Amino acid sequence: MYLDRFVLPIENEEYMILKRMSENGGMYGYIDNIYPCGLFAEKQLHEINFDKITILYGGNGSGKSTLLNLIANKLELNRIAPFNSSELFSAYTSNCEYELGYDEEGFKQKIPNGSRIITSDDVFDYMLTVRTNNADIAENIEEAKDEWVNLKFGKTVKFNGMEDYEGLRMQVLARQKNLSRRAFIKRTVGEEVKLNSNGETALEYFDTKIKNDTLYCLDEPENSLSPRLQIELVQMLERMARYCGCQFIIATHSPFLLSMNGARIYDLDERPVDIKKWWELENPKIYFDFFNKHRNLFEDD
Q: Of 18, 63, 161, 218, which sees the most CB atoms within 10 A?
């Protein structure tokens, strides 16, 4: 494991608040928002001890995404999507501490290059970007068809200076005997990215982004994924953790992700926070009660 332990500075929260108030105006200083101070002290959460797969479970407002962002910021992980910060977030992050794990030979690990946090916003933005690019390419293809005809059969471009270079280059390309119109368009405009459903595209995103021997923080990766695709994601993450040297810290309340083999689950809805088995958590119990209530509908006559 790369990350072994993460310690929250709940004993220093009052000092951080008073220090910030002083910086904001001396004895009359104020703070608009003390977040994340108080969030974990209330839950009596002092530290997190990690496994190859560690899950931060809880409902909305439980602090699971906040805790994931604290870990990602403290470790200086790569990230794309911004997060909701606050006046005290940087100071709180600076006061957090962590310990690295050891490899099989007893040497202290390092956080691997390429380690990153992946949020649901990253996945949504990827799908939106691909769809937007495809729309632009589709529009440019129609223009390229007309351009190919004009370059192929129109007047020859005369080279009178560098301002004519690009037009001449395109005409030479269009008039190559072994280059079809389709090949010309592909080379000048590009190809649309093949898109499946949103869920399949999201799963493909994880498949392409998650590499061997890397640490990942995943914030609600189940978003956009159907139950079947969530199971496929679970199989992928289990495989990468077991055989490919990856470590995962996941914020989720999906029963499918909670059931991952060997996962250590912190229940952030509990006071104090406790480590639990996935079938002891509220969300899976709600699903169980619902399907158990309608069991007769699933049973053969």
A: 218
Q: Are 74 and 98 contacting, i.e. CB atoms less than 8 angstroms apart?
A: yes
Question: Tokens 């190859």, residue?
Answer: 52
Q: Is 88 helix (H, G, I), strand (E, B) or coil?
A: coil
pLDDT at 145: 65
Alpha-carbon gap, residue 154 to 149, rounded angstroms = 7
- For residue range 137-180, list pLDDT tens digits in order: 665 666 666 665 566 666 666 666 666 566 666 766 666 656 66
- CB contact at 8 A, 212 and 240: yes
Burial category of 112 from C-beta neighbours within 10 Å (exposed 0-12, middle 13-18, buried 19 and up):
middle
b/e sequence 243-275, b meaning 16+ C-beta within 10 Å: eebbbbbbbbbbbbbbbbeebebbbbbbeebee
Q: Distance between CA atoms of 233 and 213, rounded to whole angstroms?
A: 18
Q: Is residue 300 in some structural domain? A: no
Where is 123: in which H helix or E strand?
helix 120-153
pLDDT at 151: 60
Tell me, what's the pLDDT at 60? 87
Residues 8 and 76 in one domain: yes
3-state secondary structure of 190: coil
Q: Structurally, how many domains does the chain consist of?
A: 2
For the chain, the C-alpha Rg in angstroms (whole number) is: 27
Q: Are 87 and 21 in contact (CB under 8 A)?
A: no
Q: Name residues of the chain where pLDDT drops below 70.
A: 21-22, 24-30, 130-169, 171-182, 184-185, 187-196, 301
Question: Do 178 and 111 fall within a single domain?
Answer: no
Model-wide pTM > 0.85: no
